[in-house]
Design a protein that fits this description.
This is Flagellar hook-associated protein 1. It is a single chain. The protein has about 650 residues and is α+β, with helices and mostly antiparallel strands. It folds into 3 domains: about 1-65 and about 605-645; about 70-275 and about 565-600, no CATH class; about 425-540, no CATH class. It contains 10 helices and 31 strands. It has a 5-stranded antiparallel sheet, with no helix packed on it. It has a 5-stranded antiparallel sheet with strand order 20-31-26-27-28, with no helix packed on it. Strand 8 and strand 9 (about 255) form a beta hairpin. Helix 2 (about 70-95) runs parallel beside helix 6. It is elongated, with a radius of gyration of 41 Å.
Length: about 650
């Protein structure tokens, strides 16, 4: 009887093993597409019998997961890189698209300057003036649309950061629960599957490094910062610096989490926000520079009514915000003094004061340093007005063009406000009381192309700003010498000049008030005048378009901005954003391939091969049937034994 019992016991242990095997295969096939699931197999050993006796079947089988820590880590790294690249591709493409269609500021400004040039050729055309004014409105609408598009892209990136942090914290909480479960049931396959799935999901938000524990639980870190240990998860928290850059910290001690733009969707979101801020800052600066250039050109000319041109565009003034930690009493304000010197791709600036070095600033975008010198202090195209007394170490955030793209508007309300005329038109002869000019000159006087300059020629006769707008007269006392007076009078002389071998110049100072302050309207003079010859300068009228022509050349004037011409600055912003978007799209494609490769590598080790599972299932079924036959044979033997007895 002992032998029969032993045979039955041995066969029953086999039935239990093969039944568990069939169940394991079934579980594998059912979860073949489940994220984080690793193929399971049975690990059974022979149950050793009494000495000199045959074995007694199999011991309780242990379920073993097919896993590779290295392959799993490679997949997590690929997930992190691909999630970052995909996020960048979407965000940077949105930034690039911000400058298309209604936000195409390049096309709008180009059309504006083209129509200003047309006005210069036909300054008496009211219709053409209205076209220029309409173009100005289109320019402002394009800036506003582009700014709104960038703001929308930034809002999406901020939302992605917020929801991503929430999702990452949920996954850390889930991993903490799994860790707790593994302390109670070490190496539980189901918990380990859930753990791998959660780690894979977490790796899409930020890089994940794991340190396995003896019971299968994990310590999780990113870049050296602990996210999960035996005490539980370290919650992620976002905040924003004064410069507008978001940061992430972990735990109640607010340990910084350092992420690059390639570190998961959270790192990409931070990078996308920084890219959006930089794009908007550049767009704002372009709006301020464009408006400043046109407004200065306006002030350099006259309207059809003879008035000095007023601002055509309005933009918000520079802002200066004091740090809350300042201890001094200084109040700082700023104004754009030279728009050509404003960094197109820079700002805002961190302005600081030290007793040793005075005022200095650092461009927070490029890191370039500037010293503030002069009275008033100037830096990067801005003039500072400082009242009160600063303390050592006081800091201020200086933005030269806050919300300029969104806030730009057309200040002129009438087409007659466009200053197309030159401030003066030269005519040989003497001005008569009826406004005509009589030319009785015996010699020749030739005038060249007038210009506007901040530094008159060395041989120029400089006319004070107090005479700007009055009729002026050059009185030649010889072929090389002349005086300047109010027209109709030869005395008193306002200024005097000479004609050298290269001729001479007359420079009329613009009024101190207005955008043209500090500039000079300069006219070159050549020829062989005779003593007593005259040249009259009268304010330009509606038939003059010289100032409009000068305004039109702003689009292609070298060194108009820190990026070159205005056109180059506009094109540079657009093409730069387009290049960044294209690079991100290519990177997203490449990292997607890396994810596929890493997934295949892990599947080779830990994935479910349905063909292999079918073979294994057949083997278990046949073994199960064989064990059942053993029991059947033993039963027959037992029945025969009973009958014989």
């Amino acid at each position: 009887m002992t032998g029969i019992n032993s045979a039955i016991s041995t066969a029953l242990s086999g039935l239990d093993l093969f039944e568990a095997g069939i169940s394991t295969v079934s579980n594998n096939i059912a979860n073949s597409t489940t994220s984080g699931y690793a193929a399971e197999s049975l690990n059974a050993t022979t149950a050793v019998g009494a000495p000199n006796q045959p074995g007694s079947g199999v011991q309780t089988a242990q379920i073993v997961r097919a896993a590779s820590g290295f392959a799993a880590a490679q997949l997590r790294n690929a997930n992190s890189a691909n999630a970052a690249a995909s996020s960048q591709s979407t965000a940077l493409t949105s930034l690039s698209n911000a400058l298309t269609n209604n936000g195409d500021v390049q096309a709008a400004t180009n059309q504006f300057f083209e129509n200003v040039s047309t006005l210069a050729s036909n300054p008496t055309s009211t219709a053409q003036r209205q076209t220029v004014l309409s173009d100005a409105q289109t320019v402002t609408s394009s800036f506003q649309s582009a700014a709104q598009n960038i703001a929308t892209a930034n809002a999406s990136a901020n939302e992605s950061l917020s929801t991503g942090v929430t999702s990452a914290n949920n996954l850390l909480n889930k991993l903490a629960t799994i860790n707790k479960g593994l302390t109670q049931t070490p190496h539980d396959p189901s918990l380990l599957d859930q753990q791998q799935s959660a780690l894979n999901s977490l790796s899409q938000f930020l890089p994940v490094t794991t340190l396995p524990q003896s019971n299968g639980s994990m310590i999780v870190t990113t870049g050296g910062t602990v996210l999960l240990d035996q005490s539980g998860p370290q919650a992620l928290v976002t905040s924003t610096t004064n410069s507008g850059t978001p940061t992430i910290t972990a735990g109640t001690n607010a340990v910084p989490v350092t992420l690059t733009e390639n570190d998961g969707s959270l790192g990409a979101a931070i990078g996308n926000i920084q890219s959006g801020n930089a794009a908007l800052q550049s767009l704002d600066t372009l709006a301020a520079v464009f408006a400043g250039k046109v407004n200065t050109s306006q002030a350099e000319g006259l309207t059809p009514s003879g008035a000095q041109g007023q601002a055509l565009f309005s933009v918000p003034a520079p802002s200066v915000a004091a740090s809350s930690s300042n201890t001094g009493t200084a109040t700082v304000s700023a104004a754009i003094s030279d728009s050509s010197a404003l960094p197109i791709d820079g700002g805002p600036f961190l302005l600081s004061y030290t007793t040793a070095n005075g005022w200095a600033a650092t461009d927070q975008a490029s890191g370039q340093s500037y010293s503030a010198s002069g009275t008033p202090p100037t830096l990067a195209g801005m003039a500072l007005t400082i009242t009160g007394t600063p303390a050592n170490g006081d800091q201020y955030t200086l933005n030269p063009s806050p919300n300029a793209a969104a806030g730009i508007s057309v200040a002129a309300t009438q087409a007659g406000g466009i200053a197309a005329a030159d401030p003066y038109v030269p005519t040989t002869g003497v001005l008569q009381s009826d406004g005509s000019i009589t030319n009785s000159n015996a010699g020749t006087i030739t005038t060249g192309t007038d210009t506007v300059t901040s530094t008159p020629a060395s041989n120029a006769a400089v006319i004070p700003a107090s005479y700007y707008g009055q009729n002026l007269q050059l009185n030649f006392t010889s072929s090389t010498s002349y005086t300047v007076s109010v027209a109709g009078n030869t005395t008193p002389a306002i200024a005097s000049g000479t004609l050298g071998s290269n001729g001479g110049n007359i420079a009329i100072t613009y009024p101190n008030s207005g955008a043209a302050s500090g500039q000079y309207w300069q006219l070159p003079i050549t020829g062989t005048p005779a003593s007593g010859d005259t040249l009259t300068l009268t304010p330009g009228d509606s038939s003059s378009g010289s100032n409009a022509q000068r305004m039109a050349t702003l689009w292609s004037t070298p060194s108009a901005t820190t990026a070159g011409t205005l056109e180059q600055a506009f094109v540079g912003l657009s093409t730069g954003l387009g290049a960044n978007a294209s690079a991100a799209q290519n990177l997203a494609t490449a990292t997607s391939t890396q994810v596929s490769t890493a997934t295949t590598n892990l599947q080779t080790v830990a994935g479910v091969n349905t063909d292999q599972q079918a073979v294994t299932l057949t083997n278990y079924q046949q073994a199960y049937q064989a064990a059942a036959q053993v029991i059947s044979a033993a039963r027959t033997m037992f029945d025969s034994l009973l009958q014989s007895v």
